[in-house]
Amino acid sequence: MFENKNDSTTSIGSMGEFGLIDHLTKNFKIKQNSTIKGIGDDAAVISCDSNQELVITTDFLLEGVHFDLSYMPLKHLGYKSIIVNLSDVYAMSAEPTQITVSIAVSNRFPVEALEELYEGIRAAAEIYKVDLIGGDTTSSTTGLLISVTAVGRVNKGEAVYRSGAKENDLLVVTGDLGAAYMGLQVLEREKEVFKVNPNSQPDLEPYSYLVERQLKPEARKDISRLLAELEVKSTAMIDISDGLSSEIIHICKNSKVGCSLYEEKIPLDPQVISACEEFNLDSTTIALSGGEDYELLFTISTDDYPKIKANPHLTVIGHITNEKEGIHLITRGGTKIPMVARGWNALKNEE
Ligand code: ADP
Ligand code: MG
């Protein structure tokens, strides 16, 4: 929950909608040449380059469904709400340039709480060099709602879709998997401990990487440049928001191919392995179904393998097969298990 360090808080009502928008957005500077008009008119104006294509993506974050304010500081929430959208832009192999942010807030939030949210949004906008060009502000009778839209650009014909994977291509993942989910397990556990004993001081140090991956994820802005430098052209790409298995299935369904994924190849951080032991969870299951890693999953031609094989950011975890062969996990013991989409999903309780 938001806790103000000062005694006095400012109510949203005292500022009025326009005063509030102006107050929250006044520190955002325009950085992109393509932003012709940002906040302040009926619509933003973005220039178009005839050699490029625009990509647009949007995501909703709802309190109680996607985040829990009892352990998610508002500044981190603001940051993460931008990252999840930028990750989708990078997954098209595009560069994000503009964002819009729409919020629905109840009057239990003072202006100071929204200032923190916008601090996080501003930090992400600075680091990823995107302009905040608009949004909408309205009231909510329930929780906090945040909707972010990101705009990006890519040279004509260079966008990478989910549908381009070919038989025999290699399946490659960036970074490591499962840490954000384990960070959530740690935070949920500490929340329960805190309920019983509000004076307890959690020692999160052994879980620092996990908690950071959950509370302050980053998007892989480095990968399209890295692949360009290595002269590797990915054939299909997706970001890992729901867990490896559901993303693999998306690529396979869209590309009309099958896939063999090797359990022993899945990259895991040592903190994920030790936390899984502690929580009595299977690390492969966590990597497959955990979600919120915001890594990129892509396919490349086997011809490109020598160019990527020594790269510490990239791990080959499987290969693409004929559609008839299906989608399988090959376990460490060599058993072939059909893969199912059990990725994290906000609707999972209703299924
Ligand atoms: P309109 O009534 O035309 O929708 P608004 O009063 O909602 O206009 O918004 C005025 C300007 O402020 C617009 O440029 C809009 O995009 C921007 N804006 C509104 N809410 C937000 C917000 N939460 N964050 C950033 N910009 C916002
Ligand atoms: Mg409006």
Automatic annotation (TrEMBL):
CDD domains: ThiL. Its EC number is 2.7.4.16. Keywords: ATP-binding, Kinase, Magnesium, Metal-binding, Nucleotide-binding, Thiamine biosynthesis, Transferase. The keyword Protease does not apply. InterPro entries: PurM-like_C_sf, PurM-like_N, PurM-like_N_sf, ThiL-like. Mg(2+) 2 binds at D59, D88. ATP binds at Y118, G135, D136, R162, S241. Residues 40-154 form the PurM-like N-terminal domain. Mg(2+) 1 binds at T58, D59, D136. NCBIfam families: thiL. Reaction mechanism of ThiL seems to utilize a direct, inline transfer of the gamma-phosphate of ATP to TMP rather than a phosphorylated enzyme intermediate. Belongs to the thiamine-monophosphate kinase family. This is Thiamine-monophosphate kinase.
